[in-house]
Design brief:
The complex is a heterodimer. Chain A is of the alpha+beta class. Chain A has eight helices and 20 strands. Chain B is an alpha+beta fold. Chain B has one domain: RNA polymerase II/Efflux pump adaptor protein, barrel-sandwich hybrid domain (OB fold (Dihydrolipoamide Acetyltransferase, E2P)). Chain B has four helices and nine strands, in the order E-E-E-H-E-E-E-E-E-H-H-E-H. Chain B starts with 7 loop residues before the first strand and ends with a helix. In chain B, about 35% of the residues are buried. Classes of the chains: A alpha+beta, B alpha+beta. The interface between A and B is medium-sized, with 16 and 13 residues.
């Protein structure tokens, strides 16, 4: 049985048609369509219901020690109000999930996990934590609304004091009053654009959404669905669990090796990863030269030799190119190489390119 | 949802419109374009090719997925709407003006739905 987020009725109100995704009913798109939603985020702003994301709290004197053990990134020097991205690995160095770590205080961390991995992650974490700390899964109580795009700040400042908003990318402010609603406001996102993610109690979600819609309308804010979320993150080359990452792919292969700190004290997967720093596979970007869209699992060839497979592919509305990410043999595919992708029985030409496909100008 | 009166529909959501000069235009219904979402590419058969009703005459690629396009009637391709190769988004904005192929020597297909029957078919599928 798929769950509804607190914003389910809002999606219907705005013309979204919810479909099952990671155990939740969420809209793929609204009537404006994926391309218009994507462009709104690149040029103005978009609002997303991401309440399906999971949140767990690690709190107590041993919270940091456990966070450090669970994730590959180094959280020891984080400031209160800072956010870090990190893979969480298994003993073989494969990725259990990728997550965001919020440091509230020295003994209080919030980890934000993927909805599709919620049950796996919570079981994994519970089996690994030790010492003096409380583990609390608050996923079912918390709604999350993302507001993304160059106009996101302008929209939020109509509802709150600009001083209360987090200044730096990957930082947050807790208990901000946004139009009278208490939110954790995080300057993060999954679109490659500036923006915020707002966490609030379920019962506030509808009111918060409507306040944002009201104040954002004149700025071109429109609701965006899962479709645009995927095209935006792909254009920005952000990996998605289940595509660029899984339990058998290491962070080095997935192209997120910079979030593995081999010089920190022991963490789960460290020993295995030490032997895999020089990965045999690598994540590359591909731009299709022939007409067509490569999709997940399509095979990639170099001079007739199969070298890997597509992990994600779509038509990227802003760069106006069909693009894909692929996991390939690291010995092949330097940027500029011409490769082929088998798409529905046809071999389409594709050029290996550096990632990301799109980078916002500052 | 627009369903023009003088068009006939396949249950796979293609339309056919017969012309006075004895040809038939084939395209995709408003429901089809709405379901697929923004169209990114379309690949079509060549002029001169012959098909039976239900044969694949091309495929259409939206951001979400790729779908085969089936001809609702058999016939020989007189012309292909090349304009759509460069501007596939016309299928979204004007589904009934955006014909994909024009067929000659076509065979009428009694299995097709008229606009009323297609409307009912869509309502039942909801």
């Amino acid at each position: 049985m798929d769950l509804k987020t607190p914003l389910y009725d809002i999606h219907l109100k705005y013309g979204g048609k919810p479909v099952p995704f990671a155990g939740y009913l969420l809209p793929v798109q609204y009537p404006s369509g994926i391309t218009a939603e994507h462009m709104a985020v690149r040029t103005a702003a978009g609002i997303f219901d991401v309440s399906h994301m999971g949140e767990v709290i690690l709190q107590g004197p041993d919270a940091l020690m456990n966070v450090q053990m669970l994730v590959t990134n180094d959280c020891s020097a984080m400031a209160d109000g800072q956010v870090k991205y990190s893979p969480m690995c298994n003993d073989n160095g494969g990725i259990v999930d990728d997550l965001l770590i919020y440091k509230k205080t020295a003994d209080h961390y919030m980890l934000v996990i993927n909805a599709a991995n919620h049950d796996k992650d919570t079981a994994w974490m519970k089996s690994k934590i030790k010492g003096d700390l409380a583990f609390k899964d608050i996923s079912a109580e918390i709604a999350q609304i993302a507001i993304q795009g160059p106009k996101a700040k302008e929209i939020l400042t109509k509802l709150t004091e600009v001083e209360s908003l987090p200044v730096k990318y990957y930082s947050f402010t807790d208990e901000v009053s946004v139009g009278g609603i208490s939110c954790l406001v995080s300057r993060t996102g999954y679109t490659g654009e500036d923006g915020y993610e707002l966490y609030t109690a379920n019962e506030n979600a509808v009111k918060l959404w409507e306040l944002l819609m009201e104040s954002g309308g004149v700025c071109g804010l429109i609701p965006c669905g899962l479709g645009a979320r995927d095209t935006l993150r792909l254009e920005a080359a952000m990996p998605l669990y289940g595509h660029e990452m899984n339990d058998f792919i290491t962070p080095f292969e997935a192209g997120i090796g910079q979030f593995v700190k081999m010089n920190k004290d022991d963490f789960i997967g460290k020993a295995a990863l030490a032997a895999k720093v020089n990965a045999k596979l690598k994540r590359i970007g591909l731009e299709l030269e022939d007409r067509g869209i490569a999709r997940n699992a399509d095979k990639v060839f170099s001079n007739g030799n199969e070298i890997g497979y597509v992990t994600s592919g779509t038509m990227c509305p802003f760069i106006k190119k069909a693009a894909a990410m692929a996991l390939v043999d690291a010995a092949y595919a330097a940027a500029g190489d011409m490769l082929e992708i088998e798409v529905r029985g046809k071999y389409l030409k594709a050029k290996a390119v550096g990632l990301p496909f799109y980078k916002r100008s500052l | 949802m627009e369903i023009p009166k003088d068009y006939f529909f396949a249950r796979t959501h293609e339309w056919v419109k017969y012309t006075d000069k004895g040809t038939a235009f084939v395209g995709l219904s408003d429901h089809a374009q709405e379901t697929m979402g923004d169209v990114a590419f379309i690949n079509l058969c060549d002029e001169g090719e012959s098909f039976n009703a239900g044969d694949v005459i091309g495929d259409i690629e939206s951001i979400k997925a790729v779908s085969d396009v089936y001809t609702p009637v058999g016939g020989t391709v007189l012309s292909v709407n090349d304009n759509l190769l460069d501007k596939p988004e016309l299928i979204n904005s004007d589904p009934y003006g955006s014909w994909l192929v024009e067929l000659e020597d076509f065979k009428k297909n009694d299995e097709l739905l008229d606009s009323n029957a297609y409307e009912k078919f869509l309502a039942e599928a909801e």
